[in-house]
Amino acid sequence: MSVRELVVLGTASQVPTRHRNHNGYLLRWDGQGILFDPGEGTQRQMLRAGVAAHDIDRICVTHFHGDHSLGLAGVIQRINLDQVPHPVTAHYPASGQHFFERLRYATAYRETVRLAEAPVAADGPLAVTDAYTLDARLLSHPVESYGYRLTEPDGRRVLPERLAAHGIKGPDVGRLQREGVLGGVTLDDVSEVRRGQRFAFVMDTRLCDGVHALAEGADMLVIESTFLDEDVRLATDHGHLTAGQAAAVARDAGVRHLVLTHFSQRYSDPAEFERQARAAGFDGELSIAQDLMRVPVPKR
Ligand SMILES: [Zn+2]
Q1: DSSP line for 90-152
Q2: Distance 201 CA to ligand 1 centre (A)
Q3: 3-state secondary structure of 192
Q4: H or E segment and range at residue 244
Q5: How far is the CA of 148 from the centre of ligand 1 (A)?
Q6: How many Å lie between the centroid of ligand 1 and the Cα of residue 100?
Q7: Is-contact 13 7, C-beta < 8 A?
Q8: In this structure, what are the phi and psi dihedrals at residue 153, rounded to the nearest 5 degrees?
Q9: Catalytic: which of 30, 57, 67, 209?
Q10: What is the pLDDT of residues 121-172, one digit of tens each?
């Protein structure tokens, strides 16, 4: 069975708190694992969340501030220590190549795993697999920051009533699906497009075109809401979003499940983020992220 879920490893911006680790998110997408923005302490959070180094196929870093990348050193060494048998690919802003290299080679260890460096220098597709296409879009933050988006290819859903109308049943259904046509009836005649699922990951940014483009039609949007709405000036000045801004993006984009995260340590009550997101008119599923939370990608 295919599992698609977000495993939240950490949710704090800037500094960890007693209850929140630095950022870290693992997206399980069928058999694949994509680790986003491993902040400091990610290796231990993985242990607590039941995520193994073997689960990681790809690493996506939005930008090189410590709360999104200091964990690279530990995670990369762990991938090598555990001799992960498959290659791992890392994406990060090309302008931070020197940061990536420092973190990758922060201390001595034995390299056993093929880790491909695939820096991001422009908007567009980074990888195409059977399960998804991975795209990046530039965000707006004091250091160069890219958001990421997974798009599953569209499929086709066979409609029983149309099969019946054409008198197709039994093994003929499979034959039509394999061959695309049967006795003059095409697969299109008896099926409809089943839109592929979409997942978007938007970290440190103020509102910009990239935020909206990444969020558009997402089944799940994981997005920073560092600040509450009363601190919108601070948010804009430092290149961040408020809860209300993030929720308004999700509302306009038709997001089904919104995950707010990356909270400033200045706030003590997570429920206020939820209140402000609802006040902004977002009425889909809403999660205020907590460390070690698991959030299933909504069913198609
Ligand atoms: Zn941050």
Answers
A1: EE-BGGGHHHHHHHHTSS-----S-EEE--B-SSEEEEE-SS-EEEEEE--SSS--EEEEEEP
A2: 13
A3: strand
A4: helix 243-253
A5: 15
A6: 16
A7: no
A8: -60, 145
A9: 67
A10: 999 999 999 999 999 999 999 999 999 999 999 998 899 999 999 999 999 9
Helix, strand, or coil here: 66? helix
Distance, CA of 134 to CA of 31 (rounded, Å): 16
Burial code (b: 16+ CB inside 10 Å, e: under 16) for 79-102 equals bbeeebeeebbbbbbeebeebbee
| Percent residues over pLDDT 90 in the chain | 95
H or E stretch covering 220? strand 220-224
With cut-offs at 50, 70 and 90, classify the pLDDT of residue 187. very high
CA of 210 to the centre of ligand 1 (A): 17
pLDDT mean over 178-201: 93
Spatial contact of 225 and 239, defined as CB atoms under 8 Å apart: no
Ligand 1 mean position, distance from CA 82 (Å): 29
pLDDT for res 1: 53
Token couple for 94: 């090309």
Q: How far apart, in whole angstroms, are the C-alpha atoms of residue 141 and residue 62?
A: 10
Task: Give the residue with greater pLDDT, 258 vs 268.
Answer: 258
- Is 30 a known active-site residue? no
Cα(205) to centroid(ligand 1), Å = 9
Burial class of residue 189 (count of CB atoms within 10 Å of its CB; 0-12, 13-18, 19+): middle
| Stated pTM of the model | 0.93
* Cα–ligand 1 centroid distance for 13 (angstroms): 5
Q: Are 99 and 73 in contact (CB under 8 A)?
A: no
